[in-house]
Amino acid sequence: MKFAILVFPGSGCDIDMHHAVKSVLGNEAEYIWHTEANLEGFDAVLIPSGASYGDYLRPGALAQSSPAIESLKAFAASGKPVLGVGNGFQILAEAGLLPGAFLRNKGLKFRSGNAKLTVLNTDSKFTSDYENGQVITIPFAHEYGNYFVDEETVTELKNNNRIVFTYADGNTDGSTADIAGVLNEQGNVLGMMPLPERAVEEIIGGTDGLPLFNSILKRWSENNVSHA
Amino acid sequence: MTKVNVYVTLRESVVDPQGIAAKEALQTMGYKEVENVRIGKLIELELDGTAPEIDARVKEMCEKLLVNKVIEDYRYEIGEVAGK
To answer: Label partner for B18 (CA 20 to 30 A): which of A68, A117, A172, A173?
Structure first.
């Protein structure tokens, strides 16, 4: 499986993402600088965390001016998987590929550590390797982790099983309905504030992020076996 | 030259943690009359005054980039700047 890792000026966790999918999981992975914008031939797009465009105006907002966003929208419309973590989630929300927006953490401080997440939907192409209700530990690091969606949207998200991860330990930074990860309507775009690529080896503190990447790989190989 | 001031505020339904912290600080300093603080931002645009459809284009800039309507409201004032 071939992964594109979309890199914007100020992206900071692109190397972690590359390490996870290539070195740990043995897939092809390429960095795509945002002005190249050509996503042809890739099976999935990963948008890493960091502080694209210095987090100026609003985190993730200025990435909209990049040519990569148009090709990302076309890629997402094709149904192939797109995963945005941390700032990558903020970019997806600002681009309108996912609902909601981000505010500064309720405590007004940058926070980092290990988040406890509950897996709510194991039917998605990102979570089939988890068990329903499983509590996993995934690192996080953010100042604008306070996810906001209005009540109407929350109801819609709940009714359609689009909330895949919620914070399990009360440390939500103010996020609406404890949401930590959410899917688009088609189910092929996932945004999450915690960083699963930082939990793929015991030596870095845990492997609870591995099933997420394995779920993507499994779904992809199932869909591609018929062509063999 | 035309100058545009865009005032961006958080929507009423959105909790403003900075505003709450500032309100508490003001009250601690003895300004007991402060009942609420909301913090927004001012964006100043300087435009070529001869450009057409300034009003429509400023609105577009706000909706497409400067403002996120999920969490923010906005209004703007368009004015001429003398001598420029």
So the answer is: A117
